[in-house]
Automatic annotation (TrEMBL):
Similarity-based family: Belongs to the MscS (TC 1.A.23) family.
Cell compartments where the protein resides: Cell inner membrane; Cell membrane
Mechanosensitive ion channel MscS domain ranges (all copies): 362-424
GO CC, any one term: plasma membrane
Molecular functions per Gene Ontology: mechanosensitive monoatomic ion channel activity
Membrane topology field: Multi-pass membrane protein
Domain of life from the UniProt record: Bacteria
Entry function: Mechanosensitive channel that participates in the regulation of osmotic pressure changes within the cell, opening in response to stretch forces in the membrane lipid bilayer, without the need for other proteins. Contributes to normal resistance to hypoosmotic shock. Forms an ion channel of 1.0 nanosiemens conductance with a slight preference for anions.
Protein name stated in the entry: Small-conductance mechanosensitive channel
Coiled coil region boundaries: none
Amino acid sequence: MRRLLSVLFCVLAASMSALAFAGGGATVEAASAAPTSAAVANLPAATLKVLNRKIFEFHATFLGVPPIERAARARTNIEALLLEGGASTVSVTSVDQGRLVEIDGRMVFLVAPGDVDPLGRQTIDEVAAQAAKRLQQVVSETSEGRTLEAFVRALIASAIATVVFAAVLWVLARGHRWTQRVIVHAAAQKAESLTVAGAVLLDKQRVFTLLRRLLAIVRWFLVAIVSYEWLSFILSRFPYTRPWGEQLNEYLLTTVFGIVFGIVDTIPGIGVAIAIFFVARFGIGLLHGFFERVSSGENSTRWLDADTMPTTRRLASIAVWLFAIAMAYPYLPGAQTEAFKGLSVLIGLMVSLGASSIVGQGAAGLILTYSRTIKVGEYVRIGDQEGTVTEMGMFTTRIRTGLGEELTLPNSLITGSVTKNYSRVVKGRGYVLDTVVTIGYDTPWRQVEAMLLEAAKRTSGILQTPSPRVFQTALSDYYPEYRLVCQAVPEQPRPRAEVLSLLHANIQDVFNEHGVQIMSPHYMGDPAEAKVVAPEQWYLSPAKKPEA
């Protein structure tokens, strides 16, 4: 009868929200007529912690009391019972409303059905048993913390651990110095022996610096691990800080095992990716073999020649590698994570926004290569610049003027400009020479043409077959314009500017020999005499009159 009255009193007190659960061991047993536990939506869960140790997490509202209030009352009950001391025992009693967790037969809190995850695999009995086990550990640690003997043992263990910790740090410091003295010097000696074409591959001082930094990183990593374990051990010696020490150990083990299992899980994907890259490498080897046979003349194709083969081989290799990367991408570690996807999107956006000009230059380079507009070794004029093509890249083309200058022209500039090629009509590594002179109308044009041809004949490197030719390209107001066009294939490789300079020198000599001034008259008024050539002077030397 007294038990029933106690239960009724507890139910009434809970419904009024005025008194805490502090009744006897079966304070809820007679509440079968009251409403069962029910969860209230949108109320946050409350965690019951005692001495830094998590005991239980309340989710349901019971008899109008929200989870946070239930946790506060349970904590008050536990602390009150722990203050009484003694050899306390935690037990679980089954009632209609759930499971009572008790200390020495006195209820501290109720595990309601709403506190159990309906989607979980645990029953209410298992959840209550786990809560009771954790509470029993708190009770035991409280009793341990009240004894001087346990406190002294914890201090002694902490002191011993600190001495061992200091000894380990001393060993690490000594080992670090010994490693620097032995390994670094040995690696430096090995570095001096690594040479390529007589040049040292690795600088000794850089090897020293790199290895010292690596050893310092390893040392401080070991110091951090030892310090972490020392702190975890010290915290685990005292009841109040023991949960912190256990959490440190659990976090370290969880991290280590997570890394290990993560590496193990990625091994199959990495294996597939490596296999894909090996297949790609094998395919590139086959392509290179084909291109080498084309280069040596064993195979011949209409669409591929010696000028386009290097670019075609490079493009084929890039295409194979891009295809391999696309195939291996899903198997790479972390490829399906949001961070990896975000990084790939960011890189793609940066390339789209910032590489438009680069893509245009590359496309222009491909156009120049496959249209065969210019080739390496040809003498060309691009806009106002002219010279011999020395290098054709994907983005730029280099030409040498022969005047001690090397010009770097963007490929997009070349494709957008008029290009004159002086070497395409000449067999071999030659080029076309042309120069313009303007002489007054009072000088016989036949004489001028003969003198220009004589100057071309005297110039070393200018071919006589096909023979040089002179064209009258304009009849201006004061003078005609003569253009000498010839082909030059010098016996020794000489820039076009040098051969053109020799031609100009010979033109001056020939004109001086025949008393003809290389001058273009400009008149401010009518001349006193007509500037015409009499027929008897048409064939002045060195012009020759054609035979009848």
